[in-house]
Write a structure and sequence with these properties.
By secondary structure, the protein is mainly alpha-helical. It contains nine helices and five strands. The chain has one domain: Rhomboid-like (Rhomboid-like fold). It is 51% helix and 10% strand. The chain is globular and about 65 Å long.
């Protein structure tokens, strides 16, 4: 399922949501030097500014790329020498949220952020949304680190923070209608579905794929499923602490008129 748009109009322009989208695009194209090719990556900065679980659980130990292209870290068994200086590990917790591995990765994340983020921003003040979004991203990285503390692959992407937005949306607006592309083998159709169904399917898929990744790590495909799960759980649990302008009448457009 691929969401296209929801049916809840915002009461004010989502300045921060747009700013985050612009920032992520600028980081990818201007800072990472990513290209318009769907599978292209901005790898020059990913290793230095991506969040590497090993560096987070071993502060002061740097990771670097070997001549064969593999990632090795100081302190690992069989690894000698000193890796090139990288960004301080806690800085990568924030920089990684605005980086992406490919144009497809960037586009998918920004689509979800635009559809669901504008309403979550609308449910609170701008500064609250900024704090909520960043905390969601930090919790997401923490969940990924807990799942595999010794992993050396950099974690990049806004999807963990966006997962927090999705969890918040599922709790605040479960019966909102989401225009969704549903793929059935080689066919597809476009229908309106309740937000809870769309987001519930998404998180169940993350849970299934995350469990599969634990059972067979080599088959994970490099996707940070536990970051998604951690971010979503944060959104569910924390949104009531932040949302102080919720649209309680968001279903009004679907009610039958009473005469």
């Amino acid at each position: 399922m691929l969401p296209i748009k929801d049916d809840i109009p915002t009461r004010r322009f989502p300045v921060l949501t747009v700013a985050i989208i612009v920032a992520c695009c600028a980081v990818y194209f201007l800072w990472q030097h990513g290209t318009w090719e769907l599978g292209s990556t901005g790898n020059e900065r990913v290793l230095e500014y991506g969040a590497i679980p090993y560096e987070i659980t071993h502060p002061g130990k740097e990771c670097g790329q070997t001549a064969s292209g593999e990632i090795a870290c100081e302190g690992q068994a069989g690894v000698s020498g000193k890796a090139p200086d990288q960004a301080i590990w806690w800085v990568t917790l924030f920089t990684s949220m605005f980086m992406h591995g490919s144009l497809l990765h960037l586009g998918g994340n920004m689509l979800f952020l635009w559809i669901f983020g504008n309403n979550i921003e609308d449910s609170m003040s701008p500064w609250r949304f900024a704090v909520f979004y960043l905390l969601g991203g930090l919790v997401a990285v923490g969940a990924q680190v807990l799942a595999d503390p010794s992993a050396t692959a950099p974690t990049v992407g806004a999807s963990g923070a966006i997962a927090g937005v999705l969890g918040a949306y599922a709790l605040l607006y479960p019966r909102a209608r989401v225009l969704t592309v549903v793929f059935i083998i080689i066919f597809f159709t476009i229908i309106e579905l309740p937000a809870l169904l769309v987001l519930g399917f998404w998180i169940l898929l993350q849970l299934f794929l995350g469990a599969s990744d634990l059972a067979s790590p080599s088959a994970g495909g490099g996707v940070a499923y536990f970051a998604h799960i951690g971010g979503f759980a944060f959104g569910l649990l924390a949104i009531r602490l932040f949302a102080n302008r919720v649209q309680d009448d968001y279903e009004q457009a679907h009610r039958l008129p009473v005469y």
